[in-house]
């Protein structure tokens, strides 16, 4: 999933947060008392975007999350072609394993 950031000055930027960035966001959310288990989805996803940009060197040196967030007018998510959840591109070849010959519990005893 891509995130498109529109800044208050009208410029835009896009990125694709990784699992690592999302984990960093969850750690930050916990340390800031934002709650856990998705109770602060907007703040956590915003921090994941910030973490992505910071990791890529696209955040000004020393700029905190709060300072960066003050410059963001909006963030939109989009799915690039092939990003759809559950498509064969996510699963490699897209082939499912064959069912077990004697049902879902395995072979029956003879």
Description:
There is one protein chain. The chain has 110 residues and is α+β, with helices and mostly antiparallel strands. The chain has one domain. The chain contains three helices and three strands; from the N terminus they run ββαααβ. The protein has helices at 19-31, 41-55, 65-69, and strands at residues 2-7, 12-15, 72-78. The chain has a three-stranded antiparallel beta sheet, with helices on one face.
What topology does this entry show?
Elements: E1 2-7, E2 12-15, H1 19-31, H2 41-55, H3 65-69, E3 72-78
Antiparallel strand pairs: 1-2, 1-3
Helix pairs in contact: 1-2
Contiguous uncertain segments of 5+ residues: 81-97
Task: Summarize the biggest pleated sheet.
Answer: 3 strands, antiparallel
Q: What is the terminal-to-terminal distance?
A: 50 Å
Q: Round the mean pLDDT to the nearest integer and report it.
A: 79
* Largest sheet strand order: 2-1-3
**Backbone structural class:** alpha+beta
Query: Tally of extended strands?
Result: 3
Element order: H for helix, E for strand = EEHHHE
Whole-number total of structural domains: 1
By DSSP (H or I, 4+ residues per run), the number of helices equals 3
DSSP strand content: 15-25%
Give the helix proportion (percent range): 25-40%
Overall outline: globular
Alpha-carbon Rg, integer:
20 Å
């Amino acid at each position: 999933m891509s995130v498109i950031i529109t800044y208050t000055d009208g410029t835009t930027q896009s990125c694709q947060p990784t699992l690592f960035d999302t984990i960093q966001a969850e750690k930050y959310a916990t340390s800031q008392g934002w709650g856990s288990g998705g109770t602060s989805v907007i703040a956590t996803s915003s921090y994941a975007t910030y973490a992505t940009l910071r990791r890529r060197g696209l955040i000004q040196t020393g700029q905190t999350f709060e300072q960066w967030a003050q410059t963001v007018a909006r963030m939109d998510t989009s799915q690039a072609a092939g990003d759809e959840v559950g498509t064969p591109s996510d699963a490699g070849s897209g082939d499912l394993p064959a069912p077990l010959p004697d049902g879902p519990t395995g072979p029956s005893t003879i």
